[in-house]
Design brief:
alpha+beta; binds pyridoxal-5'-phosphate; D-amino Acid Aminotransferase, Chain A, domain 2; D-amino Acid Aminotransferase, Chain A, domain 1; six-stranded mixed barrel
């Protein structure tokens, strides 16, 4: 890795002692510094770490009109010996660039991404909450900054990384409803990119589901809306009669890094894992036959989000209590343990900051 010193301007007064680390709301508290780089004339320039603060924007900034904006979500944690660690940072660097390519945006060099991340987290390492399951959430993002009205790719961009200490996320098992009207993504669309607009489009269906008493929706696809895609902003896993099943990525599903890591861990543990088309009818059949043992969402923020209930049309399916489940709790413990150094990093996913 190239180790270049990024121009750094430190805060005069840290905000650290104003934060209650035992009570961290998700995504509301930001650490002292952020990384910023600007793209113009075909190059990323002026990489810098500066005090966290506002941007000013021109009203015609293209991102505000045509939505060229992509992002990542990742976490830094502390190893038992106090070393800050990142999990699979290069995967995130590659994914933001894959997202950028889909949205016709500039790519940020991957080694420079990891270097920026390392220097930022190193500087703000006192912001990493020490408790297992807590972390410093990292949000890299990029947006179009040309001051122009008219649809075309922007020629200038800003890339930024901010970080936020977070406590354990989504602790409660969730109630889901199978979405039958709205779609998140279709193959050939933008679902495989972490593009900001995808999340805007998901808000109305999620809101309608919440009004009916559910926490989130299960996104469906396929010609007849019968194929399971994802849950909310997570990939989805089922355990059916001892076999772990997850929808194959098909261009509509986000290629989750947690999903990929889970598949590797489970195969290594000797589980049968299938990535394939998952029809909702087979989930109902498995439930009726008493074989639907587990269902959970997989993503960086929550790691594992257990599903307690699933509504499909008129049928409410109640899953076994979390205490009776094996796979989801094992994966959550594995990833949390890996991040804190209790579980051996046999796949070399951790990168020291
Ligand atoms: C739509 C969607 N699916 C799945 C995921 C899970 O991906 P990862 O495991 O890389 O966090 C995310 C979060 O990034 C997401 O936004």
């Amino acid at each position: 890795m190239v180790s270049t010193q990024i121009r750094t301007t430190k805060v005069q007064q840290s905000k650290l002692d104003t934060v209650d680390f035992s009570n961290l709301p998700f995504g509301k508290i930001f650490s002292d510094h952020m990384f910023v780089s600007d793209y113009k004339d075909g190059q990323w320039t002026d990489d810098r770490i500066v005090p966290f603060g506002h941007f000013t924007m021109h009203p015609a900034s293209m991102v505000l009109h045509y939505g060229q904006a992509v992002f990542e979500g990742m976490k830094a944690s502390k190893h038992e010996d106090g070393t800050p660690m990142l999990l699979s940072p290069l995967e995130h660097a590659k994914r933001i660039n894959a997202s950028a390519r889909r949205m016709m945006m500039a790519e940020f060099p991957e080694e420079r991404f990891v270097e920026a991340l390392s220097q930022l987290v190193n500087l703000d390492q006192a912001w990493i909450p020490p408790q297992e399951g807590s972390a410093l959430y990292i949000r890299p993002f990029m947006f179009a900054t040309d001051e122009f009205i008219g649809v075309r790719p922007s020629e200038t961009y800003r890339f930024c990384i901010v970080t936020a200490p977070v406590g354990p996320y989504y602790a409660k098992p969730v109630r889901l409803v199978v979405e039958q009207k709205y779609v998140r993504a279709v193959p050939g669309g933008t679902g495989e990119a972490k593009a900001a607009g995808n999340y805007a489009g998901s808000l109305l269906p999620a809101h309608l589901a919440q009004q009916k008493g559910f926490d989130q929706v299960v996104w469906m696809g396929g010609p007849n809306m019968t194929q399971v895609q994802e849950v909310g902003t997570m990939n989805i896993f089922f355990v059916i009669d001892g076999e772990v099943v997850t929808p194959a990525t098909d261009g509509a599903i986000l290629k989750g890094i947690t999903r990929k890591n889970f598949i590797t861990i489970l195969k290594d543990q000797g589980y049968k894992v299938s990535e394939r088309v998952v029809e909702i009818d087979e989930i109902v059949e498995a439930y009726d036959a008493g074989k639907l043992e587990e269902m959970f969402g997989a993503g960086t923020a929550a790691v594992v989000s257990h599903v307690s209930e699933l509504q499909y049309k008129d049928k409410l399916m109640t899953l076994p209590p979390v205490a009776d489940r094996k796979v989801g709790p094992f994966l959550k413990q594995y990833i949390d343990g890996l991040r804190s150094g209790k579980v051996e990093d046999k796949f070399n996913w951790l990168v020291k900051v």
